[in-house]
Amino acid sequence: MDNVDRIFQLDQKVVYPSQGVGVIISIEEKDFKNEKTPYYVIYLEVSDMTIMVPVNKAVDLGIRAIVPQEEAQRALELISEDYEPIPSDWKLRYQMNLDLLKKGSVMDIATIVRSLYHRSKVKELPILERKLYDSALKLLEDEVSYSLQKPKDEVENLIFTRLEAK
């Protein structure tokens, strides 16, 4: 199997925005429509699930490397900064945040956490939005803890300390 078109490597930690942080445990070829297609086999600890993603579709699906430490720090800073008020219509807000989650940059995820955390202080979030907030928070905690090489509970404390500083 050639190495030319692979972006990610074996044992690399990656972010799959809608699923969580995972590690590439193997790269395998499978027959698909009579062609050998390389797949990343990614283990997602958060859901104890293994998924297979075609190498040529990984980037389209939003899979990306864990961010460097500087970017993780910037995401933590973002959650304690001022922000634009978000729409009070929860369906509109939900769609905006869902779109951000699908884009999946660490800054987008931090933006979701910040806006929904502060919204929840005003009024309880609807169930779908609460699930979105919980997913974004878990993703942010996981990625930042891997990037900064800090325990998840320490990162969780950092996030909430910064959120509550506003």
How would you describe this protein?
- With 166 residues, this protein is of the alpha+beta class.
- The chain has two domains: 13-65, Thrombin, subunit H (Beta Barrel), CATH 2.40.10; 69-164, CarD-like, C-terminal domain (Methane Monooxygenase Hydroxylase, Chain G, domain 1, Up-down Bundle).
- 46% of the residues lie in helices and 21% in strands.
- It is built from five helices and five strands.
- It has a five-stranded antiparallel sheet with strand order 4-3-2-1-5.
- The longest helix has 22 residues, at 127-148.
- It is globular and about 55 Å long.
Strand and helix map with partners:
Elements: E1 13-16, E2 20-32, E3 35-44, E4 49-54, E5 64-65, H1 69-78, H2 90-103, H3 106-122, H4 127-148, H5 152-164
Antiparallel strand pairs: 1-2, 1-5, 2-3, 3-4
Helix pairs in contact: 1-3, 1-4, 2-3, 2-4, 3-4, 4-5
Q: Round the mean pLDDT to the nearest integer and report it.
A: 91
Strand order of the largest sheet: 4-3-2-1-5
Give the N-terminus to C-terminus distance in angstroms: 52 Å
As residue ranges, the low-confidence spans are none
